[in-house]
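Much of what follows relies on a compact textual record of a protein's fold. Here is one such record, which you should read through line by line:
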Amino acid sequence: MSAATIDSVAEEASLALVENKRRAPLQMYLLKVAEFCNLNCDYCFMFNLKDFSYQKKPRKMSLEVVKAAAVNAARVARLQEVPYITFSLHGGEPTIVGMGWIAEAVEVLREQASDDLRIDIYLQTNGVLIDRSWIDFAKKHGIFIGVSMDGTREAHDRHRVDHKGRGSYDRVVKSLQLLAKEDDIFTGTLTVMDPDVDGLEVYRSLREIGVEAMDFLWPLDYNWDNLPPGFSDPQCTRFADYLIPIFDAWWEEDNPGIQIRHFQNMIAGLLAYRSRLDAIGAPPVSIVSIDTDGGIEPVDSLRACGDGFTELGLNILRDPVEMVYTKDLFKTTIRGKDNLCEACQICPIKDACGAGYLPHRYKSGEGFGQPSVYCKDLWKLISHISSRMADEYKAERFSIAPDKTMPTIM
C-alpha cells in the first residue's frame, strides 16, 4: 500500500470516528482472552460451526494486547466524548486463564479510567468454575459476571457438555445459586433456545434457581445458507412457540424486578424507542472484538457466517482501533436500519424486529440483504406482544430512560 493510500485510509478512519461519535461510538469491546474452552457445546460459533480461525491463534491473550486495547479504547472514547467504555472478557472460557492473569488485565484496563471516563468490566462465563472464591474475586475487582445456562437439566445437558460428553448442569446450577444472591455483580443468564424442549419449563427453572435477569438467544446455526427445520412450512413457528408462553408468564406476573432483554427491547421498538440490544430492532452495532493475537474484528457472532469471515486484517498492536470504520463488514454492522432489505423497510413491525439478528440474514454471495430466517417466528412473537400490550397496557410499568433511547421496566 502506498503512502498516499495509507494517508487516505487514516483520514477516512478519523472522519468516521467523528461522524459516528453519537450514532455508533466505539464503547463496547469483547476481549477474547482465551481461544479454548472447558466445555464443547455443539452450537458454539467459536469452535463448532463454520469458523476455524481459532486454530491459528494463541490460546491465551497477552497483557501486551490488553494494554494496547485499553489505550486505544480510552483514546477513542475521549475523542468521541463518551462517558464510559465496557470491556467484556470472553472466550472460549475466560475463567480458564485464572484469577492471577485476570487481576493483572483488570489493573491494566483500569489504568485508563479518569474523572471523565468510567471503565466497566464484565466476564461472560459458562459457570463451570465459578465458586465462592471467584465471586469474592469479582467483587474485589469490580467485575460483573454473566453466565451461559440453558435452563432445565434436559435442555442444558443436551448441548452444554464437556470434552468427554458429560453434562455441565449440576456444576452450573451450583454457581448460579451462589451468584443469584450477589445482585451487585451478577448480570444474569443467556439461554440458547432449543424448540425441542419446553420454553416455559426452562424459564421456571431459571426463576427457581433465583435468576431475575435473563435473555433467550436464537441459535446461530441458521442463516440463508442453512435454513432452520420447518422453514418451508408457513405454519411452523417453533421458536415463537417456545417464547410466547415465557412472555405470557413474565407479563402476567407483572414483576418489574424480572428482566428479559428480548421482550423489553421488542416493547421498546413497539413504543418507537431505540433498541439497546444488537439482536433486535436493528440498532447500529459498533461492538469491537479483540482476539488473542490482537486481531480487531466486528461483533464475534458473525463468525457463524463462515471460516475467517470476521477477519479484517487489522491488529491492535499495529493499527488504531478506529480503522474498523474503514472496513466494509464493520460498515455493514453500524448501518442499522439502513441495512434492511426492501421487504423489511416497509414491514409494520420493523422497529421492534429490525429483521432480527444480522447473522440470521446472511446468504453467501449476497450478504445481509434478506429478512431473518426466523421471520415467521419474529412476526408471530412480536404480534402477540403487541396484542397483549394493546389489551392490557400497564403504563406504570414503563418510564423513559434519561438518554431517551428506550423505556425501562420499573
Remarks:
- Confidence is low (pLDDT under 50) at residues 398-410.
